[in-house]
């Protein structure tokens, strides 16, 4: 399997400002190392400053001439998102790559500081607001949105996106948040492609990171049973990638020249995929989700 460092082997990103959310560990940290190795100044954003500092130290040890900066960002708090956006905008008047990488998966029911269901609030709304606030800096940028094949599990209920009127299902809630990620990509491209912004969505594969920390043995069994079809069941959990391998597609999404102008595409294994659910790419639903998200974020 290709690694993130191999993807950027001959890529020169000197002077290309990159911002990565969830950069303190896992795919975000690996992406930061790869982009820094290609010469990009990289902003590592995350909610735990100590963990971010440790990630920064690791990146510099791996890439001695790396240019990095840190921004505290808690996607479960709109106040934190707005503060982080202000800091990023001040330090990076132009952003070439925004990698919306952070996320949570299969969490027990809880709500964010702004009363959003935790998976919808973290995976979609926090990134929606960050991207919206940074839009003046994103003309000509690539916005890489981490989705998942988990979007096959569930459409998003646009009449109850915050799980206020239904019994909570953590698998369906995760699938809905990943569907929201793809819909966000679709509407971003519709609105801002003329400004040169290019949004893509990425399925990184099943990666051995702490993202699955809320999963029990029973949950893994249930997840197999909820796979979209029998073809998927053997692959849902059996092919576990390392973070170095898992980060390859999102780094490719951020840098590959062959993707120039190819907005609204779903990527996996460093290639464009066409097996996206129709409900995740419906332009009318994408526009409606945008309106709902704007209302919720205020």
Report on this model:
The structure is a single chain. This protein is an alpha/beta fold and 298 residues long. Residues 228-236 have low confidence and may be disordered. Helix 4 (78-91) runs parallel beside helix 5 (118-133), helix 5 runs parallel beside helix 6 (170-192) and helix 6 crosses helix 12 (283-297). It has 12 helices and 10 strands. Strand 4 (97-100), helix 5 (118-133) and strand 5 form a beta-alpha-beta unit. The strands form 2 sheets. It has an 8-stranded mixed sheet, sandwiched between helices. A two-stranded parallel sheet has the order 7-8. The relative contact order is 0.15. The protein has helices at residues 4-7, 26-37, 49-62, 78-91, 118-133, 170-192, 217-225, 230-233, 243-246, 248-255, 278-281, 283-297, and strands at 18-21, 41-46, 67-72, 97-100, 142-146, 198-202, 206-207, 240-241, 266-268, 271-273. Helix content is 43%, strand content 13%. It has a single domain, classed as Rossmann fold.
